[in-house]
Amino acid sequence: xxxxxxxxxxxxxxxxxxxxxxxxxxxxxxxxxxxxxxxxxxxxxxxxxxxxxxxxxxxxxxxxxxxxxxxxxxxxxxxxxxxxxxxxxxxxxxxxxxxxxxxxxxxxxxxxxxxxxxxxxxxxxxxxxxxxxxxxxxxxxxxxxxxxxxxxxxxxxxxxxxxxxxxxxxxxxxxxxxxxxxxxxxxxxxxxxxxxxxxxxxxxxxxxxxxxxxxxxxxxxxxxxxxxxxxxxxxxxxxxxxxxxxxxxxxxxxxxxxxxxxxxxxxxxxxxxxxxxxxxxxxxxxxxxxxxxxxxxxxxxxxxxxxxxxxxxxxxxxxxxxxxxxxxxxxxxxxxxxxxxxxxxxxxxxxxxxxxxxxxxxxxxxxxxxxxxxxxxxxxxxxxxxxxxxxxxxxxxxxxxxxxxxxxxxxxxxxxxxxxxx
Amino acid sequence: xxxxxxxxxxxxxxxxxxxxxxxxxxxxxxxxxxxxxxxxxxxxxxxxxxxxxxxxxxxxxxxxxxxxxxxxxxxxxxxxxxxxxxxxxxxxxxxxxxxxxxxxxxxxxxxxxxxxxxxxxxxxxxxxxxxxxxxxxxxxxxxxxxxxxxxxxxxxxxxxxxxxxxxxxxxxxxxxxxxxxxxxxxxxxxxxxxxxxxxxxxxxxxxxxxxxxxxxxxxxxxxxxxxxxxxxxx
Lengths: 422, 234
Known about the structure:
The structure holds two protein chains of two kinds.
Chain A: H1 2-14, H2 16-54, E1 59-63, H3 66-69, H4 79-87, E2 92-106, E3 111-119, H5 124-127, E4 136-139, E5 155-160, H6 161-166, E6 174-179, E7 188-198, H7 203-208, E8 209-213, H8 214-221, E9 229-234, H9 240-250, E10 257-261, H10 262-265, H11 267-305, H12 307-315, H13 320-355, E11 358-359, H14 360-364, E12 368-370, E13 373-375, E14 378-379, H15 385-411, H16 415-420
Parallel strand pairs in A: 3-8, 5-7
Antiparallel strand pairs in A: 1-9, 1-10, 2-3, 2-6, 2-9, 4-7, 5-8, 6-7, 11-14, 12-13
Helix pairs in contact in A: 1-13, 2-11, 2-13, 2-15, 11-15, 13-15
Chain B: E1 6-17, E2 20-32, E3 37-41, H1 48-55, E4 63-68, E5 71-72, H2 78-88, E6 89-92, H3 104-115, H4 119-132, H5 148-160, E7 166-170, H6 178-195, E8 199-203, H7 206-210, E9 214-219, E10 222-228
Parallel strand pairs in B: 3-8, 3-9, 6-7, 7-8
Antiparallel strand pairs in B: 1-2, 1-4, 4-5, 9-10
Helix pairs in contact in B: 3-4, 3-5, 4-5, 5-6
């Protein structure tokens, strides 16, 4: 094998210009790939994180059937206990009990159909985008019900700013929320005081949603201690599946529950990300088909140029296998050197993009919305060692694959004819 | 008398140019004994190179039998023929045909490496043959840095370093001027005399033919004369 390696290495060094041109294409291909993947992965993670914080968390535990029906017929009967179990799972940062319903919000003059969510005001600001002070436009967030002076005092309502505008509401205005309680029957209603408004940039949230205290919601909807869901937040999005698996084991006795990860609960978002990845991979595939054709051409030309030399080597007793290996090994050396350069360029760009990032508005314009998520701020590059290794291996694999036919051709030469080659 | 190294019996070789059959050899029968210094002589197209290619297991005859140390070449697979060339035969080509990316030392070492000879032994053998062919001290040079005569000396070193059963040289002096050609033939003659290396080479150069211990004349693919003894001009 030593002679094969020596031949491959010498031949690689002899054709410097060829190595530089082909190697540059490979190196730039890999560097571009790492930048694209890094930015896309970070963008996707941000979208997922936003979806998770706007919606149901990394993992959501809800009544079995709720995902389809979205009615109060499918509830978690002991949500506090479920939340407590969830909080004990490694990697879980918080678990929030929520009660979702639809209702009609009325002022004296007008009314609007809304999605209302009963929440724990002590927990939500820590985990939910809607409750985050960054998204608050006017007023304050909900106060916990038990801090209010009187049992019959109207509770707080926190609503989308567009909704507030539609109903011409100001802070401290009084509104009436009417809902269909659990099990049907007469609609129930209660008065609320507008405590604050939020703006997420997403029209369905800003124009149609509101939050009230969980206790108020339970009372109004007649659900007792039940809730529609327990949203479980992970410290790291990558732990989502492990946490879901852990929860499924821990809650295996509760057959009336469904446990969904954000990929299942936010299917539109997840499918959007998958589709975006597919289109990115398609683009990369096109780039690499072009690079592969270039490599194929270069290696084949090199074999044709060296027909006589290869013929001599065969005449001297070099086996077909060794000749095949020598050509392939030369490509492998080229791939390794080019990959090292590509990694150096790609990882330098990654380091810069990881710390500085790119302003999304400069890339896509203001209010870039993806699968119902408004992406804002900057995107950075996000790469893991696994992703870098995977794409480097793909690039080296493509180079080797492009060289298989030329190497095969070299090994099929007949020494006498090959030595006649000029 | 020892067993012959090469035995050819009724060997024919027909090339095909489209639908036309071009006979290159028409029934060659000969044997080569160990230690011979044999020249295949003949004009261009007489079949010298074809015969050397067949003896060298580089090509297969259309009919007839060729045995190298008793082994029938036509019955061997491509892999077995490659192994046979590696172990038994040294080649010297008209156009030197050195591996351009390898130094003189590495070219001479090439076959030994393929044979799997240990490093220390390899080094000893290579240095010995480079000394014999007069290239001591120039081991690190690449083929392009040598004159034609020197390149052919490297080729001879490469051919004899593994101590093959037979060295086949196809018009080894054709690309050299007469002085260099004469020196090369003297070198090969000395190697034959001093070390018993068996040489068979083709040539149509009268000066080369003169030095042959055995002269086989070919014409139109047939042996027309097979003369033993010195052919040097008196």
